[in-house]
Each structure stands twice: as C-alpha cells, then as structure tokens.
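Aim 2, interim progress. The first record below pairs a target sequence with its structure tokens.
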Amino acid sequence: MSDDEPAREPIQEDARIDALEARLKAAQQREEERNRPQVSGPDANYRSGNKVLADLLGGLLGGTVIGYAIGSLTGTNPWGLLVGLFLGIGVAFRNIIRAANQRPDE
C-alpha cells in the first residue's frame, strides 16, 4: 500500500491567492500611511499663539522703553513713559487683530 499514490493531490499555489495577498498588503500599507500622524513640528495654533504673545510683549516693552527714553530726553518723564506705554499697547493690539483676521492659508 505504500507504493500507491495518495488519494488527494497536494494543493498547488493559486495565482489568484497570490494576487489577493499582494493587493491586501498594498491596501494595509496605504491605510497605515493614511492614518500615520503628519505633524512633524509645532502646529499652526501653537505658532499663532507664540506670535500673539510676542506681539503683545514686544508692544508693551518697546513702547515702555521708547516712551521712557523720549520722556527722559524731553524732561517729561512720567508723561512720556505713559504715552509710549499706551502707544505700544495700541500697536500690539493692532498687530494681534490683523493676525486674527488673516486667513490661515496665507
């Protein structure tokens, strides 16, 4: 009996199964690529927050320093400082409003 051929032939590799496995693997790779997070650095909200903070601090400090310098040179120190401070605040708010009205894709 050992010389007899087996009743069933071994299953041959089917080209359709290979093609299906290749398509499935390609689809899984595309899905992994699509679901991978794309953020590589700070996002746009973080950058815009830093810009607002820099505008606000720069306006306050710049207006204060320039107002104090002008007040010291002209002899009207407290008024020069206050005018410079309020002008710096006004410039900072103008820059913040201009940045807020700008489209994100620009």
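The second target in this work package is listed in the same format:
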Amino acid sequence: MRETPTWRIPVGVLALCAVLLVYGILIARYVHPVIADWHALLQLPVYVVLGIVWIFPLKRYLAWMETGRWG
C-alpha cells in the first residue's frame, strides 16, 4: 500500500474520462449511422462488443496509475 499520494491517479482518472468521452462520441458519430436501420436485436451485439472493447487496455493503464510502469 502506498503511503503518499501520487499525481498519476487523479490525472489518470481525468484522462480516462476524456478518452471514454471521445470514444463514445466517435461511436455515436460513425457507428450509429451505419447500423441505425438495423433491427434492435442486430444492433445489440455491436453495442455490447463496442462497450467491452475499451476495457482491454485498461489493465495496463491502471497498473501505470498505481506503479508508474506500463505492465
């Protein structure tokens, strides 16, 4: 457990929020018009995959926030 606070955690949380906002805007701007006419049950797996994809690089990012190393 860390005894002193580090700048990486608040900066990392703010950066993560900013990146997720940009990701959401990109999805709404470019993916939604393509699949808007599809049936809702066909849209569902697309949005589920896109909602999960951003989690994959999160482990290394959270490790950096805690330790300062990428990995």
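Residues 25 and 54 are 13 Å apart (CA to CA). This observation will shape the mutagenesis plan for the next reporting period.
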